[in-house]
Write a structure and sequence with these properties.
This protein has six helices and 19 strands. It is α+β, with helices and mostly antiparallel strands. Helix 1 packs across helix 6. It binds zinc ion. Zinc ion binds next to loops.
Length: 334
């Protein structure tokens, strides 16, 4: 595969703290020889673990972006042992637009891996992360949340790996992060167009989050994100002193399995939920009704849970289209 056309205006091998941009060539009507400036920070201090912190993979997931912007300003080179790269607005056009996807090409960065060096901007960013950044990374932590359409119980997540050593190391991230819940995505042959998939291909250890959502930044959720990231950095040994003295709260570890964990709108209309986040539901229990504003005398469509579990994610907008995800469940791992 050919080389990335993106260039960094900082030197990742240089000691100390540097801020700069990844320059993504973008020749358009308004700017013939222009480039898209994706902010990046490198904080390097001698030999040690190499960590890549990512947020803004989806532009409307703000908790992680705020967490990493604060960390960008706070961390000093003397705090670090090894190197931390911070990419706080990974899909920069999407982050600036406050949208899940890029307004330039419609691209969803987290469905664009392994990317394409000669593709549209979103594919070029995915290619750069997978083929330039990940090969010089030991640990990648990718901070997501529910975005505009979903709300989560703040959680950390990993994929289930067959490799026992990889699984044990990844599971330890969940305990170190200490979100109220953590979940392991137990889907063999799962989605491989994500950064998670890229990390697995490049043999980089990975943890993600689903911090909150609804296109908001809530103080309680931000505290979970900030203290979790601080503990994670200390856990992997890239920080000399603890950034937080708060011990990790106990996290409830769940499994998110196949299609029966997810509930989708069977019709388009107005959704009336019958349960909230944190509900423990039974198989067959009513999840809600889809009402039809264009024919109000028509009976609403019932929606029921296919299996028992804990409601960890719910749809936020009342208006819904057939195929929208309304809820998803987790079940205890052990
Ligand atoms: Zn996301």
């Amino acid at each position: 595969m050919s080389r990335s056309r993106i260039s960094a205006d900082i030197d990742f091998d240089k000691e100390g703290k540097q801020h700069g941009f990844l320059r993504l060539p973008h020749s358009v009507h308004e700017s013939a020889y222009g480039w898209i400036p994706i902010p990046i920070t490198s904080i390097k201090n001698g030999a040690g673990p190499r960590v890549l912190l990512v947020s803004g993979n989806h532009g409307d997931e703000y908790e992680g972006q705020v967490t990493l912007m604060k960390l960008t300003r706070r961390l000093r080179a003397e705090d670090v042992k090894g190197r931390i790269l911070i990419l706080s607005a990974a899909n920069f056009p999407a982050a600036m637009a406050g949208r899940r996807t890029s307004p330039i090409d419609g691209g969803n960065l987290n469905r664009s891996f392994p990317g394409d060096p000669n593709g549209q901007p979103t594919a070029m960013i995915a290619h750069y992360i997978e083929h330039v950044l990940l090969p010089q990374t030991d640990f990648v932590f990718d901070l997501h949340s529910g975005g505009s359409s979903l709300q989560y119980i703040p959680s950390a997540l990993i994929r289930r790996y067959e490799d026992k050593e990889r699984m044990a190391k990844s599971r330890a991230f969940l305990e170190a992060f200490g979100a109220p819940i953590a979940y392991i995505v137990d889907v063999p042959q799962g989605e491989d167009r994500t950064l998670t998939g890229g990390a697995e291909r490049q043999n980089v250890l990975h943890m993600g989050t689903e911090l909150g959502g609804s296109g908001t930044v809530q103080p309680a959720v931000l505290r979970i994100a900030e203290s979790g990231v601080a503990r994670l950095l200390h856990h992997v040994g890239v920080i000399r002193e603890k950034l937080t003295q708060e011990p990790a709260p106990k996290t409830r570890v769940l499994r998110v399995g196949g299609p029966d964990y997810y509930l989708y709108a069977p019709d388009s209309g107005l959704f009336e939920p019958h349960v909230d986040l944190g509900a423990e539901v039974k198989a067959g229990q009513s999840a809600g009704l889809v009402h039809f504003p264009d024919t109000p005398w028509r009976d609403p469509s019932p929606v029921a849970f296919a299996r028992a579990g804990l409601v960890i994610c719910k749809r936020i907008p009342g208006k819904t289209q057939r195929g929208d995800c309304l809820f998803h469940l987790g079940t205890d791992w052990d």
